[in-house]
Amino acid sequence: MTKKFNKFLWNGKEGNSAKAKVAWGNVCYPKREGGLGLKCLEEWNQTSMLRHIWNLFACSGSWRKLLSLRSTDREFIKFEVGDGKLIHLWLDNWHPFGPLYERYGFRIIYDSHSTLEAKMNSVIRNGRWSWKLARSEEFVEIQSKLPDVPLGNVDKPIWTLSRKWVYVSADTWEFMRNRKSEINWLSAVWFP
Fold first, then answer.
1. Total domains present in the chain
2. Where are the alpha helices (DSSP H) in 1-105?
3. Among 39, 64, 90, 119, which is disulfide-ready with 101 (CB 3.0 to 4.6 Å)?
4. Residue 54 lies in a domain
5. Rounded CA gap, 161 and 173, in Å?
6. With the CA atoms of 172, 95, 92 and 88 taken in that order, what torsion angle do they form, in degrees rounded to the nearest 10?
7. In a domain, 165, yes or no
């Protein structure tokens, strides 16, 4: 995006190619410091994200409200397994049964000689599943569904309420909202 801004600033439109008169980094300073007063997108993005964090802590109850949605969002976020470096083996929703800790409890972690914080890459070797031999019915059940979980290249979160697999507010609202029966007089009141 910065590259597009740079081209537009010096060429008037994106397609033209001309040399920049000043390095983009120098343009992104306040005028009083010799720049053009434009904001560096990366710095502004970080500033905006920090504002969200501030609002979570500063606004009364926001943090608690957000935490109360954890059980709701958990059912909508799944993971496509890649190299397993980002996904928690027991806590995240990657398996057809959902988060394994929620289904089996701590005993399955203990029996596997694992930890609650274990990542998926602890059971993936050279792009293939590498689980220890199943020594309980629970492990047999978990491992029986592994053929249904393909391994990719990188771990990827999936928002299950959207056809695009990314968070879309309209799709999420449509699923979450309260509903009433549709009315037959809609067109008499609202015009297309």
1. 2
2. 2-11, 24-27, 41-58, 62-68, 70-74, 100-104
3. 90
4. yes
5. 10
6. -150
7. no
Q: Are residues 50 and 100 in the same domain?
A: no
Pair (50, 89) in one structural domain = no
Question: Residue holding tokens 């409200």?
Answer: 65
| Bridge partners of residue 26, in order along the sequence | none
Give pLDDT, residue 12: 63
For the stretch 88-106, pLDDT in tens is 999 999 999 999 999 999 9
pTM above 0.85, yes or no: no
Q: Rounded to an integer, what distance in angstroms lies between the CA atom of residue 51 and that of residue 82?
A: 32
Question: Of all residues in the chain, what percent are helix, strand and coil, respectively (each to 5)?
Answer: 45, 5, 50
3 state SS of 7 = helix
Task: Please return the burial class of 47, using the count of CB atoms within 10 Å of its CB with bins 0-12, 13-18 and 19+.
Answer: exposed
Structural domain includes residue 132:
yes
Interatomic CA distance for residues 140 and 106, integer angstroms: 17
Residue 37 lies in domain: 2-60
- pLDDT digits over 72-86, tens only? 777 889 999 999 999
The two three-digit tokens of residue 185, written as one number: 């007089």
